[in-house]
Amino acid sequence: MSYHGSCWKARVLSLLSKWLVMMLIVGAVSLSPLQELPIVRANSQLTIDSHNDGQQVNSGIVVISGHYTNIYDIKLIVNGREQLDTHMNNLSGTETGTWHTELDTSQYHGEISLVARGLNSESRYGVTTPTKWINIANPSASPPLVRIDQPFDGAQVEGQIPVTLSVYAINPIQTVEVRINGGPWSVAEAVYEHYEYNWDAENALNQTSSIEARATDAFGNIGRSLTVYVKNGEVMPQEIILEPQDRAIWIWEKAAYNLFLNPGSRTALKAFADDTSTFDSESVTTFYLGVFPYGGVDILEEEPDRVRDFMAWAHDNGYKVHACIAGGTVPPYFGALTPYHELAIREMEKVINYNLSSSPHEQFDGVNVDIEPYILPDFRLQKPSVQLQYLDIMEQLIARRDTAGIPLPFGPAIPRWFDSNEPAKDITWNGQTKWLSEHIQDMSDYITIMDYRDSAEGSAGIIAHAQGEIDYANLIGKPNSVIIGVETLDIANSGDPESITFREEGRAHMESELDKVYAWFNGNSAFGGIAMHHYDSIRWLPSAWGPDGAMWTVTSEDVTPPTGVSVNPTATPFDYQSINLSYGRAFDDSDVEEYVIYRSTTPDFQPDASNVAGQSRNLTYKDRGLLPDTTYYYKIAAKDISGNVGPASETASATTFSTTLRPMIISEMNIIHDGIRSKVTLKVCDYETGEEIIARVYGRFTMNGGKYVELAPDASGVMFAHSETLPMASGEVGFWPQRVLAGDYYWATAYDDPRTAAVSWSTL
């Protein structure tokens, strides 16, 4: 019999004794049940043990495995192109054990890289393994290598031009093709040991043209060349004119692809961008628009007309749009490393090639580059290796723009400390020793400082952290070249302090602080405006949390529900407690805000509020905290920005795997506010018996709160934690459990009762 209600009563002394034993196993601590837990400091470690460097591996499913100590949420990064979830085998409840994942090597041939990455149990910052290289023996997956030999990159051409190609392949070649300026692919003919395509350059007179080539082998593998840029006739250099970008906003792929593929989403974007009255704010004039492949679509390569349609709409409405790219890798910061530079170059070339193939009214107005190399551990540990590789790729990306000869402003996003912290100090590159920020400013047209703080003034404020870059921009004569970025994202799950975001304070406080930034830099020629991160988070940021706060709403309100999903969901079990879902996009006459995931253990269930498993902004969802050996049934429905829910999909089902671990749940979670701060209390129980058990519980406060805590038992055995100091007059705070650990148990979070807790107050 399963237990769903309150936990059974248990003896307090027994619980405290168990808790003490568990803490002593993890590390020696000074215990007082009425005080907050002392910090347990332990070194973290993560390894890949299953394979040696250079080991030969056959094609098929290969198990990659290793050990971890004081680590959670481990991913395996494969060749900088995909990131796999892992199975973490942990019986002790201490975030220490072994991990493994299954890698399908059938898509690879030759040498590939493996890096495991997890989060440190204490700091919540990333920990990575050294790179392992393995060799896959799978010739049938080897794509051809293609190179354009003639004409040379940057050449001047005229008349009939033979485009000469070299193709190197293990497998028989089926076709070799060339395209000019993003046009149709045309067949190149084999001529002795190379391939040749005759191009009439007179059809592209007085312009720069892009030349690309590809080869397809007998197994369907496609290899692509890098782009060659040539000029035909009188191609006059065009000056890059950098206009102010106030305000700018980042729009990542989740929202960007809605804008491309669901034109109704643009009504919400325009309403948000033009709204200056709700929060007494500046209007948004510039979009940093994510264009990396998403949801199985490479928008610049496969659907450029969709991008052209959006760009024309944006320009018709007075907006500027910068393509936002990163390293062409997963995760993006791998693009800083030399082995992955070609992937970053290809991302830049896609933007350049798109512009060359589009009318001026459809072209991007700039490119914003967000690689963030400092996330790599070697940025600090092996200075200046990563720093120099990062500068090299920045220089190469700019060189591609310059070779193409197009006036596309180039602007990297950099952290506020590239002019102040030791890892960025005294970087010698191209014969000059400078701060890393200064090298970047020297070569770039503009920078966007990730000046993430929740106050404008003071030594740690937004103004002080931007002053160095502003002063240097004035010194080198680059007006409008420093954009100051601010954060609105909920970052409390990371190791970063809540002081880097306006999430807890709300939009009214943010606008008040930004007024101070405007006042300070008003009239300074280097200041180019403020950028907000990002569209998906800030449009749901209230003026202030609590009963007296105001939310932004789209006007006019949409009353028509979205369509059903375009592809019915599929469900695949991942392990004993999680199932992966995927589904197609829905469409709406406004923005599709999220997808509602309905779950049941009954196949013919009716979707309603009682069986909502969660929501997703993506076209995928991982349902966690389930029971083992259980079949679950799912339906998906789209929800638009006004709250209308569309029709539910067909049913998908999957059955979880077996485990010897027992499910535990959180019960009796409650939160109160005492006028200064809030206190959360909860219990952890065996799901099946209801017996109260001792577990280590980590979580974070939400809304006005952002503090990440480990709970401790009070004198009665109830787990508790306090928030940071909260606003006295009005506010709202919740608690969101993150990690629950106990030996021989796993957290069946889907069955928590209750799943959330919040409290609001107002004395106004």
TrEMBL record:
Q: By its UniProt entry, which Pfam families does this protein fall under?
A: Big_7
Q: Locate the Fibronectin type-III domain: which residues?
A: 561-659
Keyword hit for Lipid biosynthesis: no
Sorted alphabetically, which keywords does the UniProt record give?
Answer: Membrane, Transmembrane, Transmembrane helix
Gene3D superfamilies to which the protein is assigned, alphabetical:
Immunoglobulins
The cross-references to InterPro entries, in alphabetical order and at most eight, read: FN3_dom, FN3_sf, Ig-like_fold
Listed transmembrane segments? 12-34
The name this protein goes by in its record: Fibronectin type III domain-containing protein
Q: Which organism is it from?
A: Paenibacillus lentus
